[in-house]
Design brief:
Family: Belongs to the enoyl-CoA hydratase/isomerase family. In the N-terminal section; belongs to the enoyl-CoA hydratase/isomerase family.
Largest sheet: 8 strands, mixed
Helix content: 40-55%
Distance between the termini: 50 Å
Subunit structure: Monomer.
CATH class of the largest domain: Mainly Alpha
InterPro entries: 3-OHacyl-CoA_DH_NAD-bd, 3HC_DH_C, 6-PGluconate_DH-like_C_sf, 6PGD_dom2, ClpP/crotonase-like_dom_sf, Enoyl-CoA_hyd/isom_CS, Enoyl-CoA_hydra/iso, Enoyl-CoA_hydra_C
Strand order of the largest sheet: 3-2-1-4-5-6-7-8
GO molecular function: (3S)-3-hydroxyacyl-CoA dehydrogenase (NAD+) activity; enoyl-CoA hydratase activity; isomerase activity; NAD+ binding
Pathway: Lipid metabolism; fatty acid beta-oxidation
Number of domains: 4
Amino acid sequence: MASVDRIRKITVVGAGTMGHGIAEVAAIAGYEVWLADISEDILRNALKRIRWSLDKLYEKGQLREHPDKIMERIKTVVSIDKNGNYTEDFARVLSETNFMIEAIPEKLELKQQLFRFADEKAPDHAILATNTSSLPITEIAAATKRPERVVGMHFFNPPPLMPLVEVIKGEKTSDETVRVTVELAKRFGKQPVVVNKDVPGFIVNRILARVLNEACHMVARGEASVVEVDSALKYKLGLPMGAFELADYSGIDVFYYVFQAMAQRGFRAHPCPLFKEKFEKGELGVKTGKGFYEYPVPGKYQRPNIPKEAGEKVDPLLILAPGINEAAYLLREGIATRDDIDKAVKLGLGYPKGILEYADEFGIDKVVEALEKLKQKTGWEEYEPDPLLKQMVQDGRLGVKTGKGFYEYGAVEQRQKKTLLIRIEPPIAWIVLNRPSKLNAISPEMLRELGETLDELEEDERIRVVVLTGSGRAFSAGADVTAFMGISPVKAMMYSRRFQEILFKLEYYTKPVIAALNGYTLGGGLELAMAADFRIASETAMLGQPEINLGFIPGAGGTQRLPRLIGRSRAKELIYTGDMIPANEAAKLGLVDRVVPPERLEQEVRQLALKLAEKPPLAVMAAKYAIQIGMETNIWTGMALESSLFGLLFSTDDVVEGVTAFLEKRKPKFKGR
């Protein structure tokens, strides 16, 4: 029986970028390593690069041993002589190896030739692994008499830094070989994922190909610019790089070749023409000084200027949906598990969340709608929603909003009050103003229920963010004027004070509050929205303070909060005229933070809410108080408050968790303690 404990000597064939990095990783892990390539010059250069990398890691305190000790474990051998034949020295090295990792150029004939030779020379128990990113393991294994001991071991660049390794099973690869390879990857300090079927692109490249291709098609169709797409991906989804920024950084030629190799082996897709155009022009990205962006000189990366506001109108779901569809296929076919798919995306692509986690956040129904929209637009079959996604919609497993999707969440609770609907969707609570027949007019009873609900949710430790919205076609068209009929001036003042007290409670609430403006947001409705931390509006929303038209003025803070948000003169104009303005104009004034199509309102709000919910609750609360109170006082008092809150936070468990997670290079889990 094969055992990882039998592995003492590892041979890495190919000393290029990937090969010398893999050799370095193996040597750091304590293995004796032979690094093979076709010339002494290549090998000398590889050793210099390994030494440079080890010195850097040592300076940062990331090595247990001195680089000299690690370098002693790496030996080199020339693999091919001047006549193009494998050398006797290389044959001897292979005869003593326990595990070979091939990292030569992505040409099937070359790899098959190497594996045929290694099969003849290596011991029977030796495992032969390939670092290919696009070629089938099965076809490489066909050159040997031991296909059960041939496996894919796909590292990511640069191997010393990237934690992911895809372990790919060929048609005849044994479970034992996979088990040993997974264990070896762990001993290398890596996090392996298993690809159970030999499909083109494995996990990461299949999903990445869908996302990059769709981003490219969106630009090719004239629906958005390169910068707009990249802005949406970076700032709305939190990806480390935009699609085109990543293509430039990694090399447009790399993506072009990988996509071609996958397509030739059955990956169904219509390649975006822009990649081919760039490839044929030799505009390959950073390496040539120009790709989708321009760089100072060839080989020198400089982060492109991608403004946050540029991507406001781009729906990132339309770009991500084909990647989610691909992930659903991988899961349904048993090619990879849910956890391995999401791990691969997070570790291999640097996504802050797994692709299936994103699907749950968007809503599986919304993912299916996006795919159907793309299919209707193009007529291409690759957009057909995967049967797994359709079944999930049919079963009501829509993700976070129903408490179950690819993952299970806290049970969604719904409570009905006379004027409000409360939906508990941990870590989010939705408060829905629920008088649709009266455009959610704010009555004394609604104010009382709103105050009670805010108190209840503030005590609920499951809730990190509160969202306010309205049912029907209005957020709220204002205060219920029928409640004012016949009341005395004193009673009117008391009502105004009670309304103001609720909005003060909201403005200084200990949890972030988002107002989702789904329609008319007028009078008291706008005053309510202005007390929230953020306002995200549907394109159909209309905003205004029309009280002047009824003979009175705003009474719940409109004369105070509106000028603070948009300036004195514009506030006066809105209040004096009583005019309504559309959401887009409100955004230009700074009255709302973001405007989205109505079908995307809930999606955008949920994404922001979930992003806020991941942050340390006590620090968010402190930041909110420092800003809110600081805006109402002088800078000296504000700075003193900031210093006090800054110091106070150092007594919390969340600070310990945040610093520890940073040092351990993991995502922190804040508990609000």
